Automatic annotation (TrEMBL):
Residues 113-161 form a coiled coil. It comes from Tagetes erecta. Gene3D superfamilies: Homeodomain-like. It is found in: Nucleus. One of its GO terms (cellular component) is nucleus. Residues 19-32 have a biased composition (Low complexity). Belongs to the HD-ZIP homeobox family. Class I subfamily. Keywords: Coiled coil, DNA-binding, Homeobox, Nucleus, Transcription, Transcription regulation. The keyword DNA-binding applies. This is Homeobox-leucine zipper protein. Transcription factor. Residues 19-56 are annotated as: Disordered. Pfam families: HALZ, Homeodomain. SUPFAM superfamilies: Homeodomain-like.
Amino acid sequence: MAARSFLYGGDDPFIVPRSSSSSFHGSRSMLSFEDRGNGASGGQFWRSEDNGDDDEYDEYFHQPEKKRRLTADQVRFLEKSFVSDNKLEPERKIQLAKELGLQPRQVAIWFQNRRARWKNKQLEKDYDVLQESYNKLKANYENLVKEKEKLKSMVEELSDKMMLQEKGASDSSSTKSASQPHVLEEDVSKNMNTGYGQNGNFIEKTVEFDNGVHSSLIERVDSSYVFEPEQSDGSLDEENNLVKMLLPCVDGYTSPKITNGDYTDPHSVNSYYLGFPGDEQAFGFWSY
DNA sequence: TTGTGTTTTATTGCCTCC
DNA sequence: GGAGGCAATAAAACACAA
């Protein structure tokens, strides 16, 4: 872009008069004659101050341009200005250039570069925040996996006990006691808190296991119990799946059905009742 | 002193807005 | 179509270890 090329030569021609009341006279030395071979903007200042010597001017002006750093004072001033507003309106650009003894183009470039640095810093901050968030999620996930394993072994332990019960029951002649899931009932019931609610012909209990898993317990009017897992709880679903897998090992389970919380047609919903027939107060799981 | 990595200044090309 | 912003990049200036 020709209009912008070659160090302020074609853009924003702005020459600070020597008598300028700039508060940055210190920076003027940077633009002095002794610097002229080393500085782009210095060339123009020098040109304005030494316009009597055309040869020297030509010699300087055709030297390859070099860039120079702003003084600490100039940078401080620009930083202050940037903090107050990181966008640069033309008036402010001219004003800053005057006060700093710089070309407006230099001020514009400085702001542009400063915005780029600021953006990079912001990206770094955002990255750190995301990283921290990820680490927390990861730790949380690992805890959940451990919890899941714990629950899994719990279910396996319970089903083993059920199997033993079943085996013992089939060995004995008493069919009544054989169908009682005492171990399951005791082990589960002592590990949960219950709350109560009424639901149609059932009393619905909200139960909370020690591990934080919530479920609903449906107590039939005739005092039999079933479990109804909440659909929102994936870990319980997982547990139910495990229990469902173990079902073939358990003799005599029945599958009553529930629609909208009410007991209806035992065959209308695809779910399992993991209880036992004929129990007065049996525990079991609804499995979907 | 010099090689090397980092920071700063400046350019270029593209894009958007008016 | 010109002005200005931005991303990418070049290159000078600087810092610093060896």
